[in-house]
Amino acid sequence: DKTDNSVLLVGNWSINFVRAGMRSFIREAWPIVKHSLPNASLKVLPKVVDEELRSLQSQSDSCSLLGFVDNYYAEVNCSRVIVFPEQAGTGMKNRVLDAMIAGKALVLSPFAARGFDFGELKMDILCCNPYEFGSKVVALLTDAKRANAVGEMLKAIAQTKYSIARVGAQWEELYTNLWASQAMEDDRVAR
């Protein structure tokens, strides 16, 4: 299986807080992974590649820069673990949802996880420092069954909580309630 020891690091390198998280992962967490798993490989999908990132890549073992790719989903599907290490940010990330729908194991910062309810999976996938990132990636790479189970649980969460049908129904309910509330207010003012 070509995904066995493959990690995909995803983020927009041109955004400072994403850059900081990716830099920290490459410099501090990736060496933890390589120490435990010399055969592990890291693919970096930064959207933009600059000299700093090229320098980091040249100093890092088994790290390849993908830059912009035509098929994001193909890269996701060829990886055992997807990492989202941004150090700030708000709101739900579509790229995280895309990886969940693909059924991939994720390791992510609390900022990348914003807007999602991962339930008990939080303990397996959320990281606050490079050591946690490295350790959780190693755990998922060394236990393919667990990585697959985490990916399937994330896929189920995406399908049950964040599908267009589910979110659409929630929006419809919100607008219906807002409309009813406004109609009641209009009646009250009219009296």
Description:
With 191 residues, the chain is of the alpha/beta class. 55% of the residues lie in helices and 11% in strands. It is built from eight helices and five strands; from the N terminus they run βαβαβαβαβαααα. It has helices spanning 16-36, 51-59, 72-77, 94-101, 122-125, 130-142, 144-161, 164-190, and strands at 6-10, 41-45, 63-65, 81-84, 105-108. Strands 3-2-1-4-5 form a five-stranded parallel β-sheet, sandwiched between helices. Strand 2, helix 2 and strand 3 (63-65) form a beta-alpha-beta unit. Helix 1 (16-36) crosses helix 6 (130-142). The longest helix has 27 residues, at 164-190. The relative contact order is 0.14. The mean pLDDT is 87.
Q: How many helical elements?
A: 8
User: Which stretches are low in confidence, meaning pLDDT under 50 for 5 or more residues running?
Assistant: none
Which structural class fits the helix and strand makeup?
Answer: alpha/beta
Mean pLDDT equals: 87
State the helical fraction. Answer: 55-70%
What percent strand?
5-15%
Radius of gyration computed on alpha carbons: 20 Å
Largest sheet: 5 strands, parallel
Number of strands: 5
| Gap between N and C termini | 71 Å
H/E element order = EHEHEHEHEHHHH
**Coarse morphology:** elongated
Identify the strand order in the major beta sheet.
3-2-1-4-5
